[in-house]
Automatic annotation (TrEMBL):
This is FAD-binding domain-containing protein. Gene3D superfamilies: FAD/NAD(P)-binding domain. Keywords: Monooxygenase, Oxidoreductase. Belongs to the 3-hydroxybenzoate 6-hydroxylase family. Pfam families: FAD_binding_3 (PF01494). It comes from the Eukaryota. Residues 7-354 form the FAD-binding domain.
Length: 420
């Protein structure tokens, strides 16, 4: 059995885990990132990042490496396939930050974050199986057990291990629940170019929301959400079946342009997954930290994708956690184990209500948009939601999480040498 001691351990090398590691590195704090996969996970071909996410990436020092690759999306078109009505929405008109969202390749985002870290930061093929705590000289230490028998002692443990987080379970958080919806996602490739602009196109039907947006001149990201399981079929394991089900069954009456996008899919990028979320009261009143252990991203606040805030909220988490740890570092000239819990508690207090409302807003947004064709639902969706509340929602997610604190060189050297 291998025994290892680390100052900070992050479980999960997804967006949340890598962003948290980058935030700590900016403070001069080295973290070990444990990833169960053999390499960076690129599940999900792409994602849309709204201004709040770009402000977080700017705080992490990497936004410029991505904005040079991806053009902004300033407007969208929403077509109701039941009524034939089409509405245009602006992503910048009421956005107090004044910038537009951009859709990016998930793999590129992960690689950009990973490239900011030292080569030995990420330990792949490292599956967490159990967590314990013990007290050493009056201070709490997390004991991390891996599937290969390795045991790691950490003075700070940060769970970024996704929807089914083992760290969240250890904290006592209730498991995420199925929203009753599933989502298919994919990346379409047009070798000769697709000729589309950067507008987002969405289509609504009873219980269905789908759409696409161009990432580059040759690639288009598309999605399709519906009730799950789809007709009792299990299509998650077959990319060919996913494509066929969308084209020939669920979206067969969709506009030809949407179907053409799906036909051009790179099959290796196709996924079909249930949409999970955590009940908002579990986030409001649950234990999001305990001593020197906390959670970030989907491990804290899994949500449906209807506001496209899963990735953005995770990036915000990483910056805010870095702010609170950084303040403790500046205050004491080093990280004092006895005050780590206070820093983590401050992070939780700052994030708890914002992410709760994002979970609620995402769920309700999906419910309204896919609510059907009854007259009262049409009024709720097309008059009240899109005309009155959509701009407010866009404005609400346009949130500035702030910058990371500037830590002196002496504090950085001290923190890299030891904690306590």
């Amino acid at each position: 059995m291998e025994m290892v001691e680390e100052e900070v351990v992050i479980v999960g090398a997804g967006i949340a885990g890598l962003a948290t590691a980058v935030a700590l590195k900016r403070l001069g704090i080295r973290a070990l990132v444990l990833e169960r996969s053999e390499g960076l996970r690129a599940t999900g071909a792409s994602l849309t990042l709204f201004p709040n996410a770009w402000l977080a990436l700017d705080a992490l020092g990497v936004s410029h490496k991505l904005t040079s690759l991806y053009a902004p999306t300033e407007r969208g078109f929403i077509t109701n396939l039941i009524t034939g009505t089409k509405q245009e929405v602006s992503f910048t008109a009421t956005n107090r930050i004044g910038t537009a969202p951009r859709s990016v390749h998930r793999k590129t985002l992960l690689e950009t974050l990973a490239n900011e870290l030292p080569n030995d930061t990420i330990r792949f093929s490292s599956k967490l199986v159990a967590i314990e705590t013990e007290t050493q000289e009056g201070l709490s230490v997390a004991i991390i057990h891996l599937s290969d028998g390795t045991v790691i002692k950490a003075k700070i443990l940060i769970g970024c291990d996704g929807v089914h987080s083992l760290v969240a379970r250890w904290l006592g958080l209730a498991a995420a629940v199925n929203s009753g919806q599933s989502a298919a996602r994919g990346l379409a490739v047009f070798p000769q170019g697709h000729g589309l602009n950067k507008d987002v196109h969405q289509f609504l039907d009873v219980g269905i929301r789908a759409g696409f947006v161009a990432l580059t001149d040759k690639e288009v990201n598309w999605f399709f959400t519906c009730k799950s399981p789809p007709n009792g079929k299990d299509v998650a394991g077959s990319t060919e079946l996913i494509q066929r089900e969308v084209i020939e069954n669920y979206a067969k009456d969709f506009p030809p342009l949407y179907l053409d996008v799906v036909r051009h899919s790179d099959l290796s990028t196709l996924t079909w997954t249930p949409l999970m979320f955590r009940y908002p009261w579990d986030i409001m009143f649950g234990n999001l930290s305990k001593g020197n252990i906390t959670v970030v991203g989907d491990a804290m606040h899994p949500m449906t994708p209807d506001l496209a805030q899963g990735g953005g909220a995770a990036l915000e988490d990483a910056v805010v956690l870095g702010q609170h740890i950084g303040k403790s570092l500046i205050k004491n000239g080093r990280l004092v184990p006895g005050e780590i819990a206070e820093a983590l508690d401050g992070y939780v207090k700052e994030r708890r209500w914002r992410v709760t409302w994002l979970v609620i807003g995402s769920y309700l947004s999906g419910w309204v948009q896919k609510g059907g064709s009854k007259w009262w639902m049409r009024i709720l969706r097309e008059v009240i939601y899109y005309r009155l509340f959509f701009a407010k929602i866009v404005n609400a997610v346009s949130y500035d999480c702030g910058k990371l604190p500037s830590v002196s060189l002496s504090a950085e050297l001290e923190s890299s040498r030891k904690i306590g």
